Amino acid sequence: MTSADSTRPVRLAVVSAGLSEPSSTRLLADRLAEATRVALREEGVEAEAGVVELREVATQIAHNFVTGFADARLREAIEQVTEADGLIAVTPVFSASYSGLFKSFFDVLDKDALAGKPVLLGATGGTPRHSLVLEHAMRPLFAYLRAVAAPTAVYAATDDWAARDDDFSRRIARAGGELASLVAPHAAAGTSPTAEPDVVPFEQQLAALRVEE
Amino acid sequence: MTATATPIQFGIFTVGDVTPDPTTGRTPTEHERIKAMLTIALKAEEVGLDVFATGEHHNPPFVPSSPTTMLGYLAARTERLILSTSTTLITTNDPVKIAEDFAMLQHIADGRVDVMMGRGNTGPVYPWFGQDIRQGIPLAIENYALLRKLWTEDVVDWQGRFRTPLQGFTSTPRPLDGVPPFVWHGSIRSPEIAEQAAYYGDGFFANNIFWPKDHFKQLINLYRDRFEHYGHGTREQALVGLGGQVFMRRRSQDAVAEFRPYFDNAPVYGHGPSLEEFTDQTPLTVGSPQEVIDKTLTFRESFGDYQRQLFLMDHAGLPLKTVLEQLDMLGEEVVPVLREEMAARRPAGTADAPTHAARVAQHEGAAV
After folding, report:
1. Does B192 touch chain A (CB under 8 A)?
2. Is residue B194 within 8 angstroms of chain A, CB to CB?
3. What interface predicted TM-score (ipTM) does this complex get?
4. Residue A208 lies in a domain
5. What would the DSSP string read from start to end of A159-199?
6. Which Pfam families does the annotation name (chain A) (predicted)?
7. Contact B158 A213 (CB under 8 A)
8. Closest residue to A63, CB basis, from B195, B222, B272
9. Which tens digits make up the pLDDT trace of A84-112?
10. Would the CB atoms of A68 and B199 count as touching at under 8 Å?
11. Which residues form the domain of A53?
12. Per-residue model confidence (pLDDT) at position B149
């Protein structure tokens, strides 16, 4: 499992906060996932991508706020994200930022759950004027969560889907390539994060306080 | 002294919330709620339960700010009931006062006392008692270490970070028969508390009300592993308590219909998932006594055989009369079956529930 020639496929989690079906947010998410897969394959690494449509767990996310815990369905979505080697996170732009649903999902994750995780950022909107949402809203969110965001983030306005030039496609390919190089080492290492709670031995806590027994 | 061993103790724990009854809109007065809590505790003994535990809170809408006052009254009015807390705030109470209050209560109640330590979940309470919220965990650790010392050593010299030093101090009265009250450590989410309970060989109480099973399974497994690691006995000898929450009527559909408005408006989880979703995901059981028995019997399959089962019965504005009816059913129909079934399924080597008599016997055995 740890030898270099028996690499396992890397797992990508694709989080889409699109609300319509089909949505341009999901469309962008799928293209980013495909670009990442292609780039990984060029490095000889297979990838499996699992999609989390936040629309499908919107009610469960709201319940989590009220009860303090995730139900089975939401937990499955959370585990898909936290156990992935890399994350592709795409949101529509609402009121000059990521959507409330998108933020709410990341609000119910443990604050350390994404630490060190490679992530590719994407956003969609009706006009290119909102494209800096990626840099001014999304990137700080993932910086706070200590995720490792790929330098290229991709914004898709309505016009981009109709554009004849290949700028948009090239940007997607570049972003996918960046995420691929961030997650590829995970395949070689064959490691995956564990869910066991780790605990500081009590003697250490006592010693830190110099509490006498 | 060889008291009859109790494999598992059953009882109730109360938060002491003053909540409007959503079906009438009426809010009980603090006086009514406090008197209701006492009536409920006395009823617990009457129907054959083993334990009554009260929370400690220092802000509205909760009334039980002074647990040993309440438990002292109950000590005089009961004969068998074990009086406990859920929880006693180890962070903001002076450990000297905890040592004194609970030792005094032990004498008054002839040993029918134990205590559950908790950090509390209300941040603002720290400054109300002169403490610094930023020191929550260190306070819990230092205060508890001092509390143990005050109970086990007659003369204490002590110096710490959070209170004035003690020189040649004796906490009075000394614990009854030289054996301090048994201590549980209560936790909703912290693995650190499981570790602390295991380190001292104390009991670990998993609130178990809100979170899905897997979460508590992890915490209890951690506690059992660490209990063994610290040499207090096998994993099976670790002392585990669990919370639970039930509402019963003879017919399942009557229970659901009657409890639904209380569930839907409950301060802790109301306005969220449906009653059906919540009963599916948490230990809450709303149904017939048999359904309560069936669901409670699954707890040991998830968490291993355990020593104490407490039910949350009086909350969310349920009227006193209803709570007393619930306790009748719990004591007469549910607990006797659970006692028998759990005893029958219990593997040899499982620890019995902690009682003062058993702990005195153990203490004297160790002293010989």
Report:
1. yes
2. yes
3. 0.76
4. no
5. GGGG--SSHHHHHHHHHHHHHHHHHHHHHHHT-----PPP-
6. FMN_red
7. no
8. B272
9. 999 999 999 999 999 999 999 999 999 99
10. no
11. 8-191
12. 97
Residue A65 maps to a domain: yes
* High-pLDDT (> 70) share of chain B, %: 98
Residue A130 structure tokens: 């909102």
Buried-exposed string B344-362: b where 16+ CB fall within 10 A, e elsewhere: eebeeebbbbbbbbbbbbe
**Tokens representing residue A147 in the block:** 């995720």
| Contact between chains at A211 and B141 (C-beta distance less than 8 A) | yes
Residue A4 has pLDDT above 50, yes or no: no
DSSP for residue B113: B
B14-B17-B19-B23 Cα dihedral, nearest 10 degrees = 0
User: Domain count of chain A?
Assistant: 1
Residues A49 and A81: beta-carbon distance below 8 Å = no
Q: Kindly state whether residue A99 falls inside one of the protein's structural domains.
A: yes
CB-closest option in A65, A68, A213 to B210: A68
CB contact under 8 A, A69 and B210: yes
Which residues in chain B are contacts of A211 at CB distance < 8 A? 141-142, 145-146, 160
Q: Quick one: average pLDDT of A47-68?
A: 95
User: Within a 10 A sphere around the Cβ of A117, how many other Cβ atoms?
Assistant: 24
Give the least confident one: B83-87, B210-214, B233-237, B301-305: B210-214
Q: What topology is assigned to B9-367 in CATH?
A: TIM Barrel (3.20.20)
Q: What is the pLDDT of residues B240-254, one digit of tens each?
A: 999 999 999 999 999
B281 vs A: CB within 8 A: yes
What tens digit of pLDDT does each residue of B11-52 get? 999 999 999 999 999 999 999 999 999 999 999 999 999 999
Taking the Cβ of residue B151 and every Cβ of chain A, the question of whether any pair is shorter than 8 Å is answered with: no
The CA distance from B160 to the nearest CA of chain A, in Å, is 7
Cβ <8 Å between B212 and A75: yes
Query: The domain that contains A182 carries what CATH number?
Result: 3.40.50.360
Would you say residue A135 lies in a domain? yes
Amino acid occupying residue B143: N
